[in-house]
Amino acid sequence: MNHWPYIIAAYGLTALGTLGLSVASWRAMRKAEALADALRRER
Amino acid sequence: MHAFANPARFLRIARPLTPWLFWGGLALLVAGALCGLLLTPADYLQGESVRILYIHVPAAWLGMGGWTGIAVAALVQMVWRHPLAGVAGRAIAVPGALFTAICLVTGSIWGRPTWGTWWEWDGRMTSMLVLLFLYFGYIALARASAADGRGIGDNGGVSRVTAIFALVGAINLPIINRSVVWWNSLHQGPSITVRGSTIDMAILWPLGLTVLGFSLWFGAIVLMRMRAILAENKIEARLARMAREGLSEGMGESGGEGAREGRVA
């Protein structure tokens, strides 16, 4: 049995999950901090 | 610990630390994964599929470590009312759930060529699946309590029920750890303990890189999510203050007009 398709699938799904959460967390942080700064400047 | 109770002080440390943890973690885990894929030999029994070890084991440890963090945060929040403990618990939940899911999926993929099955309802796999459902429950409870403003201390933390749920859920952690000892399982017994490892060093060494890399990356994601929660708290507080000020100004104007009208009359 060729094991490499299983290895590629495992690493690919891990990369997809970690990359997706990185982007989502970074965007949520940037958006919230930018809005908080904008409101502070507005005062 | 209370030295970091101040969110402003926490942010002064978290802002420069986030990119260091993120990029450092990413570099280590990519290096570890490449070493594991290209430099280590295949296992004499499992063959090439042993390379899944380098992502499966860190994912399992961080899934369990994440819940340990949530339980400690819940205890700190309930006992000492630390203002950042509930925020930390909320921030850990999603990456913890992700790593638990990665552990289950990579374990299932690894199981097919080595055991001949994708899934087996044995102690290890079932207790790990229970951990994933515990994460889902915690995320739902934490979001509901944060949305209702019922967090302890009202600072973006989680409600008392959510904190108790986190503490009760921690009972599952020793069950996961000892499951391969207590019950018959397709899963191998404990191969990495505090006394050492039964895995040959020729295969084991890249695991240190991926464990450290994923741990640093996990820390960076938790800091990002904590910063997002703290910023959202600031936004809500400022919007509420602006609304109050607008309302009082409006009332002041209408009150003044009323007084003038009264004087005219």
From TrEMBL, chain A:
Location in the cell: Cell inner membrane
UniProt xrefs under Pfam families: CcmD
Keyword tags: Cell inner membrane, Cell membrane, Cytochrome c-type biogenesis, Membrane, Transmembrane, Transmembrane helix, Transport
Transmembrane segments: 6-26
Signal peptide: none
Domain of life: Bacteria
Any one biological process term the GO annotation gives: cytochrome complex assembly
GO cellular component: plasma membrane
Topology of this chain in the membrane: Single-pass membrane protein
Role summary: Required for the export of heme to the periplasm for the biogenesis of c-type cytochromes.
Family per record: Belongs to the CcmD/CycX/HelD family.
Name used for this protein in its record: Heme exporter protein D
Organism: Sphingobium jiangsuense
Lineage, top ranks: Bacteria, Pseudomonadati, Pseudomonadota, Alphaproteobacteria, Sphingomonadales
Automatic annotation (TrEMBL), chain B:
Keyword Cytoplasm annotated: no
A GO BP entry: cytochrome complex assembly
Pfam families named in the record: Cytochrom_C_asm
Segments crossing the lipid bilayer: 20-39, 59-80, 92-111, 123-141, 161-183, 203-224
GO cellular component annotations of the record: plasma membrane
Keywords tagged on the record: Cell inner membrane, Cell membrane, Cytochrome c-type biogenesis, Membrane, Transmembrane, Transmembrane helix, Transport
Keyword match ATP-binding: no
Domain Cytochrome c assembly protein: 23-187
UniProt cross-references to InterPro entries, sorted A to Z: Cyt_c_assembly, Cyt_c_biogenesis_CcmC, Cyt_c_biogenesis_CcsA/CcmC
GO molecular function: heme binding; heme transmembrane transporter activity
Top-level division of the source organism's lineage: Bacteria
Topology versus the membrane: Multi-pass membrane protein
Subcellular location: Cell inner membrane; Membrane
Entry function: Required for the export of heme to the periplasm for the biogenesis of c-type cytochromes.
Family designation: Belongs to the CcmC/CycZ/HelC family.
Name of this chain's protein: Heme exporter protein C
Source organism per UniProt: Sphingobium jiangsuense
Gene: ccmC
